[in-house]
Amino acid sequence: xxxxxxxxxxxxxxxxxxxxxxxxxxxxxxxxxxxxxxxxxxxxxxxxxxxxxxxxxxxxxxxxxxxxxxxxxxxxxxxxxxxxxxxxxxxxxxxxxxxxxxxxxxxxxxxxxxxxxxxxxxxxxxxxxxxxxxxxxxxxxxxxxxxxxxxxxxxxxxxxxxxxxxxxxxxxxxxxxxxxxxxxxxxxxxxxxxxxxxxxxxxxxxxxxxxxxxxxxxxxxxxxxxxxxxxxxxxxxxxxxxxxxxxxxxxxxxxxxxxxxxxxxxxxxxxxxxxxxxxxxxxxxxxxxxxxxxxxxxxxxxxxxxxxxxxxxxxxxxxxxxxxxxxxxxxxxxxxx
Amino acid sequence: xxxxxxxxxxxxxxxxxxxxxxxxxxxxxxxxxxxxxxxxxxxxxxxxxxxxxxxxxxxxxxxxxxxxxxxxxxxxxxxxxxxxxxxxxxxxxxxxxxxxxxxxxxxxxxxxxxxxxxxxxxxxxxxxxxxxxxxxxxxxxxxxxxxxxxxxxxxxxxxxxxxxxxxxxxxxxxxxxxxxxxxxxxxxxxxxxxxxxxxxxxxxxxxxxxxxxxxxxxxxxxxxxxxxxxxxxxxxxxxxxxxxxxxxxxxxxxxxxxxxxxxxxxxxxxxxxxxxxxxxxxxxxxxxxxxxxxxxxxxxxxxxxxxxxxxxxxxxxxxxxxxxxxxxxxxxxxxxx
Lengths: 337, 337
Hints:
Chains A, B: GO terms for molecular function: catalytic activity. Chains A, B: One of its GO terms (biological process) is coenzyme A biosynthetic process. Chains A, B: This is Phosphopantothenate--cysteine ligase. The structure is a homodimer. By secondary structure, the first copy, chain A, is an alpha/beta fold. Chain A has 2 domains: 4-92 and 128-184 and 233-336, Rossmann fold, CATH 3.40.50.10300; 186-229, no CATH class. Chain A has helices at 4-10, 17-33, 65-76, 99-105, 121-139, 151-165, 195-201, 216-219, 237-244, 262-273, 305-309, 315-336; strands at 38-43, 47-49, 56-60, 80-86, 106-110, 115-119, 143-148, 172-176, 183-184, 206-210, 227-229, 231-232, 249-256, 277-282, 289-293, 298-302. In chain A, the strands form 5 sheets. In chain A, strands 7-4-1-8-13-14-15-16 form an 8-stranded mixed beta sheet, sandwiched between helices. In chain A, strands 2-3 form a two-stranded antiparallel sheet. At the A-B interface, strand 3, helix 4, strand 6, helix 5 and helix 7 of A face strand 3, helix 4, strand 6, helix 5 and helix 7 of B.
């Protein structure tokens, strides 16, 4: 696995990086002065480009449901929210309606002078509370949106956000709900022309991943086909929890397809990175059941059938529980001082 | 390369296939009775799942700009439009506004009795014409939306649409703007647990693609790492143009990164599939320049700087040209009868 420092040394920041860093800095400084609690919510999947011009990439599927819903509930608890999300993934508030749903809610009225367009009366009841919350969050500047696409973008933004969050010490929550790729293709392994163009012209083609980086010629298979190394992405949770925001309340997520591995793997992660909480879930049941795993405890949180039918989202009790734990964490830190 | 019939024999249709087929059938029968012209617009990229539970996939990048804009212009020319698009890619009309743009255009007014929500007066001028066109297209049932995600979904929908379009004979246009993957991973080559989970546990891992399908054991590299075959997707343009809709006006798109290959490759495609038109473009300049390549001719179509600044979209002249060619094509078919 690449060491995390090497990763930043060998990958350039995205083009909009300095703009985002300024936004993060301004947002954090303002809320730190106000002594607000703050949460970084990461959301959506990352891409791994397969070629320089980035027509093709490997994607981790994530619509961003967990992150975008959670961001809304953190706002309800008066947290300042940095919503760091995959470009085009779901966003707080707007997530409730698709483009066509918006259009279908609208009526046009023409009079002699001009047109007016209004939300149909029967949609106002559903729409007004969502719109009102959105407007308040924007007007009070309690939410900042920053976005990423590739795993490299994500890594740069994550570190920049941590640099700004460090000053909050215990008042910061990191809520790392994004689905980050495990691997990437190093810059010098990306082909021009694209690997897929090569695919068409050769009998055989290998994507090769080795634990230790090996030079290309060693990767060649016997038949002379070109090869590409897939490298494991460094686990940023390690420097994040120990160096970047050592005082913050760090929450990671673990998505498994095997129920039996859930708690074991969550516990492994806590032992390795020494952070505060893993929220573990199984792919198929993640919308109504999660397991909270702390260094000392583990327990399930789930929606009943009635709650789900009433439209309750599991992110509401998840966030309430995290906020409760975060409050306790701040109190005990204050008592130690 | 897999033969196209084998592809359908070895890949199940998507879960919503029969629903979509019924919709296509109803839509086509209605418009065929009305003697309307019809266009199938395909739009957006396809995915290739890397594992059964589909957390990770390879994606072809395409926002769906070309297809969604073109669909609007075909409606302007009184075509019935089947808009067959990648789930969550851009759609006609709604493509002009993101979720936050919608929210920011709206004002809430509260009086003692109830709330009303209306589009701000300064946004009405921009929004009203788009909304009005959307409403007309829906009310007159001139547009049908069907969507796909994976390349397998796409293949099934494409054939089903063609089966319904055949009855239109010369009155049908196929406008194949979707970015379809060149390769796929056969069902029996997808791993459980996921290949990426295996990645983590093994020193080496190969994605292998062979022109001729080979059994797994032959694909194993010397060190015992698991392998996955990537197969070339059959070129559906072959059965489509010669068997499924032999009388239709078929337009394909060619996206290249190398300007010099543009016309040569477009001409190759026309020679091979015997369809009517290739619209060729280079990735970097595709928003303001395309090349029309017919069996006898090739010419450029581009936006001037002023046109681009005025907000003209290149899809407007592209569609106007296709509609013109399609009209000529119908006339000459009628003269032959």
